[in-house]
Design a protein that fits this description.
The chain is of the alpha/beta class and about 280 residues long. It has 7 helices and 17 strands. Strands 1, 2, 3, 4, 5, 6 and 17 form a 7-stranded mixed beta sheet that branches. It has a 4-stranded mixed beta sheet with strand order 11-12-15-16. Strand 4 and strand 5 form a beta hairpin. Helix 1 packs parallel to helix 3.
């Protein structure tokens, strides 16, 4: 198989996980009906709560999480690869994991990924976010082999950290991912250029399902789920912030062609960065 059909599920996740699950399941079924064999949901598919206490109360431990159990069963029913962009998963010690899952067509969890880079920022419009207060950061970046494609897992704010994606490309990833809950402000400014840059740098497809619109907890997210080809062209986009499904065919031959044209990965070299003083002395 040199090509396959991929889908992004765009959501407006609310505060009730079971209601979100019903919406998510219907959209995944719609994607599968359009021929998708790989379906990706956005970051925080199960619940979005601004309050740390409320987010903890609405989240489950992995072994008991109804979202995870139902989507494993759905992947098996639909015979698809299911990429849960992330779930808020309860950990011991009153912390959460922002955890993505890759589920096989047999309904088995093949890999999981805990978001590495925490969104700790103060934005010009007064928004302030401190993910590190609620979430425990990960440290491992997986590349999953489907048999017909290799795919790297990442989440949202990771898209601003090129080293993850270059490392995944070195490990053979042909498809890079960035399921997200980008704020409206940062999305309007940077969403498209970041997706395209990661694709161009690595000669890889980038597939990113997004949250969109005004959520029950009051936050606003950008939407615009997108797929970018290895030459940096946007090949599919939901040009809005409403819930929906985005479907496109990914031709993996384009990865080989892009990397043949511009062998940036092959040409990369190790180097050392030094600091030089006004007097010309090497400081470090």
């Amino acid at each position: 198989m040199t090509s396959f059909v991929a889908a992004c599920v765009q959501m407006r996740t609310g505060t009730n996980p079971l209601k979100n699950l019903d919406v998510c399941e219907a959209l995944i079924k719609e994607a599968a009906a359009q021929g998708a064999v790989y379906v990706q949901t956005p970051e925080m598919t199960n619940v979005l709560e601004t309050s740390r206490k409320a987010q903890l109360a609405a989240s489950s431990f992995e072994a008991d999480d109804p979202f995870l159990q139902r989507l494993c069963a759905l992947a098996r029913e639909l015979n698809i690869w299911m990429h849960i962009g992330s779930l808020a998963i309860h950990l011991e010690g009153e912390k959460l994991a922002n955890r993505g899952y890759m589920i096989s067509p047999q309904g088995k969890i093949i890999a999981h990924y805990d978001k590495i880079h925490m969104f700790d920022v103060d934005l010009p419009n007064g928004e302030s976010w401190r993910e590190s207060e609620s979430y425990s950061a990960g440290a491992v970046s997986p590349v999953v082999d489907f048999g017909f494609a290799k795919l790297g897992m990442a989440i949202c704010y990771d898209i601003r950290q090129p080293a993850i994606f270059r490392g995944q490309a070195h490990a053979g990833a042909q498809v890079l991912t960035g399921p997200a809950a980008f704020t409206k402000q940062t999305g309007e400014a940077h969403w498209h250029v970041l997706q395209r840059a990661r694709a161009i740098e690595n000669g890889a497809f980038v597939v990113s399902a997004a949250q969109g619109g005004t959520h029950e907890d009051g936050r606003q997210t950008y939407g615009h789920s997108v797929m970018v080809d290895p030459w940096g062209h946007v090949i599919a986009e939901l040009d809005h912030d409403e819930p929906g499904v985005l479907v496109a065919e990914l031709d993996l031959a384009q990865v080989d062609e892009a990397r043949r044209r511009i062998p940036a990965i092959k040409n990369a070299r190790d180097f050392t960065v030094t600091s030089v003083s006004l007097e010309g002395e090497v400081v470090s």
